[in-house]
Design brief:
Length: about 300
């Protein structure tokens, strides 16, 4: 029941459903837009988590502090999903590459690690009747599921999946296909969030007691390097990579090239900083093992 596969499926569905059409008229409101499926997924995840949290807090003893920490991570991650998927950021992403980049960064480097750290599957399972909990526990402990999950969450495999998703979907023909077709755009969102959840699970489990913290730091560093390189390509290029955006970014007083360069800077600098911070946290835990949050160990 500790496997976060359900987290990946549910939250990927949220991200996929939130794909927005590029062809929205510039006169459309850039306000809050709640897609019914996105709203339903977010609401159900919050309700189940709240029910599970209440039940676990009633049963907890010395581990209550760790539970509250996980609840805080979930709240922060859930609110980040709200900001990325239904706030004006989502609507603005249909007219600006830079805003689109902010949305993707919120999904991949803010929401994904927070949701991995909160380990919500246990809370969700505890919101269910006892018989359902027992059936779910038996299912996820089957050999096939355990073997498949161990394979896909090995740090190197997760790193490759995340690397491939990021670079392939930013290839001009694929990115513009996503701009032109809502179904392709939904698949793009799903790949970004799912690959990020796998990557951060593989890396951050070392913070929660994994044996190879040094390799996790290597994966964080190399991810910072390749995402920074992609951002630098956008920021320093004098060529428009995605002409399908046209002049829509003029709504924000940006030319198409300025919009692309700003999006590249967002990926390059703030995006890279997230991996640096995560690496420093892992280093601190490595050098000072006595400060490792034992409550996270108990909550696994």
């Amino acid at each position: 029941m500790r496997r976060p596969l359900a987290l990946c499926v549910l939250l990927t569905a949220c991200a996929a459903a939130a794909a927005h059409p590029l062809q929205s008229p510039l006169t459309d409101s850039l306000g809050w837009h709640v897609d019914p499926l996105v709203g339903a997924c977010l609401s159900i995840s919050l309700l189940l988590y709240a029910i599970g949290a209440v039940r676990l807090l009633r049963r907890s003893g010395a581990g209550r502090q760790g539970l509250w920490r996980q609840i805080g991570f979930f709240a922060a991650g859930w609110l980040t999903l709200v900001a990325a998927l239904i706030s004006p950021i989502d609507a603005a992403g249909s007219v600006s590459f830079a805003m689109h980049m902010i949305q993707h960064e919120l999904l991949m480097i803010v929401a994904a690690p927070l949701l991995v750290l909160c380990r919500p599957l246990g809370f969700w399972v505890w919101s269910l009747p006892h018989a359902w909990r027992k059936a779910i526990g038996a299912t996820v402990q089957t050999g096939v599921i355990r073997a498949a999950w161990r394979t896909v969450t090995r740090p190197l495999n997760a790193w490759i999946v995340h690397f491939a998703a990021l670079w392939l979907w930013h290839a001009p023909f694929l990115f513009q296909a996503a701009l032109r077709n809502d179904n392709v755009h939904a698949l793009q969102h799903a790949c970004f969030l799912f690959s990020a959840l796998l990557f951060w699970w593989a890396v951050l489990r070392e913070l929660m007691g994994g044996p190879r913290r040094g390799m996790s730091i290597v994966y964080l560093f190399t991810t910072m390097m390749h995402t920074g390189a992609l951002g630098a390509l956008f920021a320093m290029s004098a060529t428009i990579w995605y002409p399908d955006y046209g002049a829509s970014a003029s709504r924000f007083d940006l030319s198409p090239l300025e919009d692309q360069q700003l999006g590249g800077l967002i990926m390059w600098v703030p995006g890279g900083l997230a991996y640096v911070i995560a690496g420093l946290v892992l280093c601190a835990g490595w050098l000072l093992p006595q400060t490792r949050p034992a409550s996270l160990e108990r909550a696994k």
